[in-house]
């Protein structure tokens, strides 16, 4: 199969992975509160636990998936393995007979989401720095497209009412069965359409594999001996080896072994230093704060709209659809601006919009009662600000981390970043869901964290840039060739 076709099929497979991640979120979340609360009596705090379970398993497994991909350089097998957990978790969500089984289903499904770190690492290895932000924007935009399409599935899933053996299929359980079927289809597509693409090298004009080859291989030695015979000369005899030569070989072998151990130790020390460097720490801390605040609001959104506005599944699904549409448009804007603005300025734009939303909420939502006229416009405007700002920050944050870290350890760093995001998406829902309707406390903590993020960005702004490049003309990525062909 031609390499260009393999690239195209791989690109489609990656896009489908992120698309289904968005669909799952939009299909499961609108009914998860009613499913756990109305059918099995789950308290608001336990709903927060269920909400966070998916992220918990993802954060634990993401670094392991990343390290495995760095070690094997085989992304395909990792994704295929992870998809099995998505299938199993959603089946368990479908057959759940208590709130604890709903929790277990989301916990298992979250393992599959950990494969995202492997895909982000592959993107980092197969794109140039100039276009990487745009490629990440496309991948994350496809997730938002899944969020846009997901509510449409809820419209017909809402009408389901039949049984499969002892298991009832209704508007609460059908999302789990539906997503299990979609992830099974994705598994089959990955088997036949996904390929592990070769890594590009931006620092040299030659392939990295060529550098690893010995200067004198067996083939070259045999070729030299053959030429010598053809020319009538006598090749050197290699069969007789004296003791002095053997001692030299043994000494050289030990020296090489020591050099390899020293090199490995130096690489580990450099990796540790890079991990605790100021830029990396700020990137990870800012990722935590932004996603803590964002998921706190997400956990609040469904109960808040249900309690204060009286919204049910249909209204909530429509609102998710509109939110996803705005996010897609924002990702398109980010892709366009990524060639004109640096990653750190894109992060500043995202932080500014979220801070504006929190200020608005603090002013308008700290003392409200159900069905007050100001609630709907406040939530609408605040949600627009948050959804517009988050893509600017999240895409630039992931892209910048990939640019300031070594390509050989992209899986590890992307796994660590997704784990930090996972911690935030666990603590955020627990915080947002545990205090019920005490909006003053919830919003004050979120605003305080946002202020801390602003201080971190201000103090470290100069360091948040990719190192200067050593090449004159970067090589094209594995993805750009598809769009230009």
From TrEMBL:
The gene is LOC116296250. Gene3D superfamilies: MFS general substrate transporter like domains (1.20.1250.20). Keywords: Membrane, Transmembrane, Transmembrane helix. GO terms for molecular function: transmembrane transporter activity. This is Major facilitator superfamily domain-containing protein 8-like. The chain crosses the membrane at residues 12-33, 45-67, 79-97, 103-123, 135-157, 177-195, 269-292, 316-334, 346-363, 375-400, 412-433, 439-461. GO terms for cellular component: membrane. It comes from Actinia tenebrosa (Australian red waratah sea anemone). The keyword Electron transport does not apply. Pfam families: MFS_1 (PF07690). Signal peptide: none annotated. Coiled coil: none annotated. Residues 232-259 are annotated as: Disordered. It is a multi-pass membrane protein. It is found in: Membrane. InterPro entries: MFS (IPR011701), MFS_dom (IPR020846), MFS_Domain-Containing_Protein (IPR051068), MFS_trans_sf (IPR036259), Tet-R_TetA/multi-R_MdtG-like (IPR001958). Residues 10-465 form the Major facilitator superfamily (MFS) profile domain. SUPFAM superfamilies: MFS general substrate transporter.
């Amino acid at each position: 199969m031609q390499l260009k076709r393999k690239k195209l099929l791989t690109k489609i497979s990656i896009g489908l992975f992120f698309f289904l991640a968005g669909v799952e979120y939009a299909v499961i979340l609108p009914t998860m509160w009613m499913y756990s609360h109305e059918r099995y009596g789950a308290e608001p705090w336990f709903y927060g636990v269920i909400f966070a379970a998916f992220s918990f398993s993802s954060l634990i497994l993401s670094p392991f998936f990343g390290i495995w991909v760095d070690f094997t350089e085989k992304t395909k097998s990792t994704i295929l393995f992870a998809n099995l957990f998505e299938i199993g978790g959603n089946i368990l969500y479908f057959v759940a007979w208590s709130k604890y089984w709903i929790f277990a289903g989301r916990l298992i499904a979250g393992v599959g989401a950990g494969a995202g770190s492997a895909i982000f690492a592959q993107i980092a290895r197969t794109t140039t720095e100039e276009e990487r932000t745009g490629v990440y924007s496309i991948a994350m935009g496809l997730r938002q497209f899944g969020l846009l399409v997901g509510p449409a599935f809820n419209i017909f899933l809402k009408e389901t009412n039949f049984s499969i053996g002892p298991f009832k299929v209704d508007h609460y359980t059908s999302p789990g069965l539906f997503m299990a079927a979609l992830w099974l289809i994705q598994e089959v597509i990955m088997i036949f359409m996904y390929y592990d693409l070769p890594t590009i090298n931006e620092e040299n004009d030659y392939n990295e594999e060529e550098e690893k080859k010995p200067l004198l291989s067996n083939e070259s030695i045999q070729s030299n001996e053959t030429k010598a015979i053809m020319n009538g000369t006598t090749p050197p005899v290699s069969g007789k080896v004296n003791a002095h030569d053997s001692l030299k070989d043994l000494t050289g072998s030990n020296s090489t072994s020591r050099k390899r151990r020293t090199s490995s130790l130096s690489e580990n020390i450099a990796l540790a230093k890079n991990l605790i460097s100021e830029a990396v720490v700020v990137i990870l801390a800012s990722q935590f704060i932004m996603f803590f605040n964002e998921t706190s609001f997400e956990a609040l959104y469904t109960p808040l709209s249900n309690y204060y506005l009286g919204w049910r599944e249909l209204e909530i699904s429509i609102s998710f659809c509109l939110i996803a549409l705005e996010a897609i448009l924002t990702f398109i804007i980010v892709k366009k601006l990524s060639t004109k603005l640096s990653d750190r300025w894109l992060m500043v734009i995202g932080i500014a919009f979220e801070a504006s939303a929190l200020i608005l909420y603090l002013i308008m939502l700290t003392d409200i009662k159900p069905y007050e006229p100001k609630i709907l416009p406040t939530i609408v405007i605040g949600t627009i600000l948050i959804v517009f700002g988050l893509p600017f920050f999240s895409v630039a944050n992931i892209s910048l981390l990939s640019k300031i870290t070594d390509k050989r350890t992209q899986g590890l760093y992307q796994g660590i970043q997704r784990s930090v995001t996972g911690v935030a998406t666990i603590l955020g829902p627990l915080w947002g869901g545990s205090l019920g309707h005490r909006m003053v406390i919830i919003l004050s903590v979120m605003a305080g964290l946002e202020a801390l993020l602003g201080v971190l960005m201000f103090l470290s702004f100069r360091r948040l840039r990719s190192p200067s490049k050593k090449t004159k003309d970067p090589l094209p990525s594995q993805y750009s060739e598809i769009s230009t062909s």
